[in-house]
Every structure is written in structure tokens, then in C-alpha cells.
Design a protein that fits this description.
heterodimer; A: alpha/beta; six-stranded parallel sheet; about 15% strand; B: 2 strands
């Protein structure tokens, strides 16, 4: 990122308005002002420099300072929206807002969080939202900054997370300094991310900025929640606000989330009550803590199976109705399947085989009724294919599932009979037994390779659990690459105890998202822990410095399998298919030779680091020591050399 | 951005009806780059074990060719078996790979599955893994002791 020095004379040193106009007019020779010939032909050499010329008082003083500029008002607007933090790598195209935040705004609400990469800025905002339920603002250059940020914005879009991105840019060519500012200017700054953001605008006045800022917030926060972009023109930031200009931030009103219509909801309730084996599949269902409670209420009313796809923390893992560890069996036996904001409903209702001929087939009974309630149906774009395969369903309600749950639960309670209640209770008993059997199977599975070195992912997860289970903990890293051992073996029962994954599976999300989530958890005093893949951290390890610098307490447990392991397996599949030998699959896919010392990496960033640990007996005490550091309000990292998955 | 991992949602395993197939639930949507819907995986060797009556499995095990467990351990790593199954063949829900250490299949079933997997495991021809190498790998897997039950490990019961 270039932080350039400005030439002595450029757009930003000129005062706008009458005073500037008068000064400029006075400085133009009368003959030149009266002559319409091209300026080029009348160009005159600069006056000779001498000590006297440089120190004498000019006849008309050039105004070089301003008490209040557009960026101050922009900060007023940003404050009115309630942002707690703004994440950014500093950039000259938004230097006005930057300075206004830290001085005019007192660097509080929002506080400036220094990031070392724009991808980290956005991912921090991504993780923060999923804990706090509020967006963070992100500042970035309209060119090189948003280019860095794109993948993280795409992740947030796929994960239906609002991130409020403000891009600096200079639209007016006459306001750009020669050189770098031209490289850092663009006609349409938001174009690069328009395919995976919900809305954007380029305000050309401060009133326009105020309106669009409020509109962007509302659009971002209305399900399906998604990132938005606001472009803050550099000249608008730095020009003085005329004394007679009346400005105020717009009143912000939150939109009510879209709720399913009562007729469709009643139809769904009938099907659920009549079903013998209904299954609820939740994914990005619990947008807020209330979502978890609502889902528990519905499931307990019906005494039905719940499969949590873990896009959010939707359902307690030890609840007897939780059948996530036997999801395929539950789906296969179901006569009614209700999907609640499920990212890939086709995937969970079909099986798939990846051989030379790729095939899939339904994983459900042919008579099963399929129902979806999803805000994804309210907003879809064409280019990026995150919407998954089209799934044939019997009822599709385009609405926010969390907001619809209370209505659905009420409709179920309204029609359930005593006979059905008795049937529900019998079903609940059976499901409890199935849940306990699944838990026992998972414990037995975890026992294999228990004492192995490198350390098994099950052992690593359980050593962590042993140290945190009596704390107010929050696991903020995705568990996909550790075989979901935490969900299979830990006791999750609070909304903030899990926040799902990247959304778009763009690697580089986890470490900064965990740090953003830890930032949200900090004021509540929660112990934030993250299981961190090595390949993911290597994308932008500067996030460790950000955590140390801002004293964000988070414990990273490195899942260090020394590879981009998914790709090891992918390349091997190809080699097997071609019968070309299978010993070269580490080429281009492993992170060895040399091995990375993540503990030293952490220490180099000012963070506590320990490891590499490859003997499972050493792991528990190391985690305990690191937790003591985190409890003091600092980040820590324990490097664990692990089995692949 | 450099190399990218793909999503592979955690797989679960189910046993169904007559063939008792262990079926990898591969939910591989959402690739971050390059092709999506990739499967991975793997030795779901237990599929065949479950489909073979115990008596037949016992008969087959009698015909196990001599294998070198030490060499098998090396091959298990160099041939990449560990990638999906873990270094001790413990299996992994995320990859859909069944637990194979110690093996749940007879040698015959094991070798048949290696050559012609029924689910998402890639096929290994004799050109890639000769018969003797399969025997050595099998011997290595047989040498791995059974662990205690999960209920007997205190940390697994917290």
C-alpha cells in the first residue's frame, strides 16, 4: 500500500468556496484572465526564489487550514450508525476520514483497528458480526485496497454476513496529484465486488453521503444480510464544509426481517405435526441468540430430529434431539424435511460420488415432503454460483427462517392434539437413544490414534476442551478440517460458542475472522479459542500483530498438518485416476522444507507462542499456560503438529 | 492467493440395510477455487467388511499373503493412504475415510476395494500399488493395536 507524500500544490491545498475563488482570481494576472487563448501558450515560469521571496508576507494569504471538512461529517455519519470499530490498512485515498476518526472522533466508536492486509480487515468484520450481530466498518483504497479485500468480501457474501466497506477514491481528474493518485483512482470503485455485494453507491455530496450511508446500513442488515460498499470521494472528504451548509446524519430505522406468510406457515405446521419422522435441518438459521432458543422450542414441541449444518450455532450439541452426527440416516428415514436457511439443501438431501463419471442420487425417501424457509430465495445474483443446485421441494417459503420460527412454532402448538403429543414423546425417547449411541460411537472413534504423534485431531480438540469446559468459552474457528470433533464431543449450548466457517471457503478467513470474533467477545470477558489451520494462517499472518497490538485476547491452537491438505488429496485423486504413480502428490501442496515455526512467528509479532508440540502428553499443560496469557488480555498461540484430519 | 483448499463438509457414516454399506456423506459444495464438488476420499474399506459374512471373512483371512509390516508402514505414507485415513488408519469423518487400522476387512475385501472402490475413494491399480505392496500395507494395518473404548478415556467423557 502506498502512502505517498503530496506535492506542495494540489487539490487539497486549495480552499473551496468564495474565499478560495477570490484568492485564485487575485493570483491570476489580469492579462491572462482576459485572454481566451490556451493556457499552455501563456504559461509563465515560476518567480525566482530568494530568501526575501520565500519569507515575505504575500499580498493575499493562501488559506491552508480548515476547521471542519467533509470527512468530519462523514465521521458524524459513521458514528450515528453505531460502529464500534473500523478496520483498515491505512491508505491515502481515505486519509481524511482516517484523521477525522482518530482526532475529531476521538478514536472511539469507532476505534481504528490497524490491519496488515485488507483481506484481514474484512474477515475481522466478518467474524465480529457473527458474535456481536452488528457490522464493522472497513476502510480501503478504492483500487489496490479493495483488490486485496475481494476474497474476504466474497466469503462474507456467501456466508450472508454484512460488512460495511468504505472505499477511498478520487473521481475528479483535476483533483488528482500526478503519479500514484492516478494509479489509485478508478471510474467505478465498487465494480470489482458488485457481483458479490448487495448494494453500493458513490455519493457526490455530503447530503448524498449521509443518505446513502444510512441506506447501505439498512440494506446490509435486512435478511439476507450481505456486504455493502460506499465510496467516499477524496475531494469530498477533504474539502471544507461551507459555513452555511446544514448537515445531519439520517435517522436510521431497522427493517423488520421478512417473515413467511401465515398461510404457508400453517401448511408447514400441518405437515410437521402429521409426520412420523420429521427432520429439521438448520444451517445459517440462528442469526441472533433468539434463533437458537426458537429452534429448541420448535424441536421440543415436535420432539423431532434436528440436524445442525453448523453455519451458525443453531442447536445445542448435547441436546437429545440433536442428530447431526447421524445426519444421513436421519434424512434418509424422514417423511418431512424442513430446511432453515440451508446453504446447500441439495447436498444434504442427495448423495454424491466423485469418480470419472460423477453421479448423484436422492438421499431421501421418494415420498418425503421437502420444505425450505430461506431468505436466499429473496435475493439471487447470476455470476457467482454460490446458490448451489436447484432442489425440487414441495413448499418453498422465501423468508428469514429465524424470524419465521416463532410463527411456525405457534402454528404447530395450535394444532397438535393429545394423541400426537403422545406420539411425539415416544419419538423423543427413540431419538434420545439414537443421540447417545452416536455420541458413544464418536467417543470410540476418537480413541483411535489417541496417543499418536503427530497428534490426532480428536486428541487435540479434547485436550482443548479439557482446559476450557468450565470457562465462558467461544470457539470461533471453523471445525470442518478437524472432522467436526468439537460438535461431536463438546457441549455447545450458547449462540456465541460457534460461528460457522468462511462461507465461500476462501482460505485466509479463519485467523482474522477469529480475531474479529475475539474483539467482539472481549468486552464480555469470554475466553475466545480458535482452531487454526496452518495454510490459512500463512495467507496473512500479520493478523497476529494486529491482535497483539490491540490486545485482543484470543487463543490460537494451530492445526499444523504442514500442508494445504485438501489439495494433497485432490492431486492424489487425479494421480490415481491416471495411474501415474502417487508419490509426487506433495509437490505444490505441502508446507514443509522448511517447516514453519508458528510459535516463533507469533513471538515475532509480539504474541505469546509455544510449540511445536507433537507429543500429546505435552499438549494439555501447554494449552493451560497459554490460557493464562489470554486471561490477562493478550493473544497466545500453541503450535500443534497434527494428523491430517 | 495461492493454493486453496476446498470445502469438504464433515462426512458422517451410516449403515444401511442388507449391504451394511458405510457411506461417505460428501458434501463438497462451495469450492473456493478450481473445480467444485470434489470428492476426496478414500478407503471406505469397511464397506466390504460389512458386506461379507463373518465366516467368509474368516476363510479369506486364512489366505492372506505374507506381508512386511515395516515396509507397509513406509508404503502407507509414501502411497498417501495416510492422507485420508490418518497415519494410524484411524479414519476421518471430514474425508469420509473409514477407520482401517486395524483393518475391519479381510485381505481379499481390502484388496478388492483398493482396486475398485464403491464410493469416493480413488482407485489404485496394480500399476500404482502392486499386489505385494497391498499385502505389506495390510500387514502394517494389522499390526496396529486396538485402542481402549472411548468410555475408558476420561478426557473423552467430559
Amino acid at each position: 500500500m502506498t502512502k505517498q507524500m503530496k506535492p506542495a500544490v494540489d487539490r487539497r491545498n486549495f480552499l473551496k468556496g468564495a474565499a478560495a475563488g477570490a484568492a485564485a482570481l487575485a493570483a491570476v494576472p489580469a492579462s491572462l484572465a482576459a485572454n481566451p487563448e490556451p493556457i499552455e501558450s501563456k504559461r509563465v515560469p515560476p518567480p525566482p526564489m530568494s530568501p526575501a521571496a520565500e519569507t515575505e508576507v504575500p499580498a493575499v494569504a493562501e488559506v491552508l487550514t480548515a476547521d471542519r471538512t467533509g470527512s468530519d461529517f462523514m465521521v458524524d455519519v459513521i458514528k450515528s450508525l453505531g460502529f464500534e470499530y473500523v478496520c483498515a490498512n491505512p491508505g491515502s485515498s481515505f486519509r481524511g476520514i482516517h484523521e477525522s476518526i482518530i482526532n475529531y472522533g476521538g478514536n472511539k466508536n469507532p476505534e481504528f483497528i490497524t490491519c496488515c492486509h485488507e483481506e484481514s480487515s474484512v474477515a475481522m468484520a466478518h467474524g465480529y458480526f457473527k458474535v456481536e450481530g452488528k457490522p464493522l466498518a472497513v476502510l480501503a483504497h478504492g483500487t489496490v485496497g479493495v483488490q486485496h479485500a475481494t476474497m474476504a468480501i466474497y466469503n462474507a457474501y456467501c456466508d450472508r454476513v454484512p460488512v460495511y466497506v468504505i472505499l477511498g477514491n478520487i473521481i475528479d481528474v483535476t483533483k488528482r496529484a500526478p503519479g500514484v493518485e492516478w494509479f489509485h483512482s478508478v471510474q467505478d470503485a465498487a465494480a470489482i465486488v458488485r457481483d458479490f455485494t448487495k448494494w453500493d453507491d458513490l455519493p457526490i455530496s455530503l447530503e448524498h453521503f449521509s443518505e446513502s450511508a444510512a441506506r447501505a446500513y439498512r440494506v446490509a442488515m435486512t435478511p439476507p444480510t450481505m456486504p455493502v460498499v460506499l465510496v467516499a470521494d477524496g475531494d469530498l472528504q477533504e474539502s471544507p464544509i461551507p459555513a452555511d451548509m446544514k448537515l445531519r446524519p439520517q435517522k436510521l430505522t431497522a427493517d423488520m426481517p421478512p417473515v413467511g406468510d401465515s398461510g404457508s406457515v400453517a401448511e408447514v405446521a400441518k405437515l410437521l405435526v402429521a409426520a412420523e419422522n420429521p427432520v429439521i435441518i438448520a444451517d445459517r438459521t440462528a442469526r441472533t441468540p433468539a434463533g437458537l432458543a426458537c429452534l429448541v422450542d420448535l424441536a421440543e414441541t415436535l420432539q423431532c430430529s434436528v440436524v445442525d449444518q453448523a453455519g451458525r450455532m443453531n442447536f445445542p450439541t448435547r441436546h437429545p434431539l440433536n442428530q447431526s452426527d447421524r445426519a444421513r440416516a436421519a434424512v434418509a428415514d424422514a417423511d418431512v424435511i424442513l430446511g432453515l436457511d440451508v446453504a446447500d439443501f441439495y447436498g444434504i438431501t442427495h448423495t454424491y460420488r466423485d469418480q470419472i463419471e460423477r453421479t448423484s442420487r436422492p438421499g431421501t425417501k421418494s415420498t418425503a415432503k421437502l420444505i425450505t424457509i430461506s431468505s436466499d430465495d429473496l435475493y439471487i445474483k447470476a455470476n457467482y454460483q454460490d446458490f448451489q443446485r436447484y432442489n425440487e421441494v414441495d413448499i418453498a417459503i422465501a423468508a428469514d427462517s429465524e424470524a419465521t420460527l416463532p410463527l411456525l412454532t405457534e402454528a404447530v402448538k395450535h394444532i397438535v392434539t393429545d394423541d400426537r403429543k403422545r406420539a411425539f414423546q415416544d419419538r423423543g425417547v427413540r431419538l434420545k437413544a439414537a443421540h447417545m449411541q452416536a455420541l458413544e460411537r464418536s467417543r470410540d472413534a476418537a480413541a483411535f490414534a489417541w496417543d499418536a504423534s503427530p497428534i490426532s485431531t480428536a486428541r487435540m480438540c479434547m485436550e482443548l476442551w479439557g482446559q476450557i469446559q468450565n470457562e465462558d468459552w467461544s470457539l470461533v474457528g471453523a471445525t470442518t478440517f478437524v472432522s467436526k470433533w468439537p460438535q461431536r464431543l463438546w457441549d455447545f449450548n450458547k449462540h456465541y460458542q460457534y460461528i460457522g466457517g468462511a462461507g465461500g471457503y476462501g482460505i485466509g478467513y479463519n485467523a482474522p475472522a477469529a480475531t474479529g470474533a475475539a474483539l467482539a467477545n472481549r468486552k464480555y470477558g469470554r475466553l475466545t479459542v480458535n482452531i487454526q489451520c496452518d495454510g490459512d494462517l500463512m495467507f496473512a499472518p500479520g493478523i497476529l500483530w494486529t491482535a497483539a497490538h490491540h490486545k485482543i485476547p484470543v487463543l490460537h491452537i494451530m492445526h499444523n498438518n504442514r500442508a494445504y491438505h485438501q489439495e494433497v488429496m485432490q492431486v492424489q485423486i487425479m494421480a490415481d485416476r491416471h495411474s501415474r504413480g502417487i508419490t509426487n502428490c506433495g509437490t505444490g501442496t505441502t508446507i514443509t522444507g522448511p517447516d514453519v515455526s508458528y510459535a516463533k512467528l507469533a513471538e515475532s509479532m509480539g504474541m505469546y507462542g509455544e510449540g511445536p508440540i507433537s507429543d500429546p502428553k505435552d499438549l494439555g499443560p501447554a494449552i493451560k499456560r497459554a490460557i493464562e496469557v489470554v486471561k490477562r488480555g493478550e493473544p497466545a498461540l500453541v503450535d500443534v503438529v497434527t494428523q491430517p484430519r | 492467493m495461492g493454493s486453496i483448499e476446498r470445502r469438504l463438509e464433515a462426512s458422517t457414516v451410516r449403515r444401511t440395510g442388507a449391504n451394511c454399506a458405510i457411506q461417505a456423506d460428501l458434501n463438497v459444495s462451495g469450492a473456493s477455487r478450481s473445480k467444485r464438488f470434489v470428492a476426496i476420499f478414500l478407503f471406505v474399506f469397511a464397506t466390504l467388511l460389512c458386506s461379507i459374512p463373518a465366516t467368509r471373512a474368516q476363510q479369506s483371512s486364512d489366505a492372506v499373503p505374507a506381508g512386511n509390516a515395516q515396509n507397509g508402514k513406509k508404503l502407507f505414507m509414501s502411497d498417501g493412504c495416510y492422507e485420508c485415513h490418518g497415519r494410524l488408519g484411524q479414519g476421518a469423518a471430514q474425508t469420509g475415510a473409514a477407520r482401517i487400522g486395524p483393518p475391519q476387512l479381510s485381505f481379499e475385501g481390502f484388496q478388492n476395494y483398493v482396486r475398485a472402490p464403491k464410493n469416493n475413494m480413488p482407485p489404485y491399480t496394480a500399476k500404482a500399488i502392486p499386489d505385494q505392496d497391498v499385502a505389506d500395507i495390510y500387514a502394517y494395518l494389522k499390526s496396529i493395536p486396538m485402542p481402549p473404548k472411548g468410555k475408558d478415556i476420561p478426557l473423552l467423557n467430559k
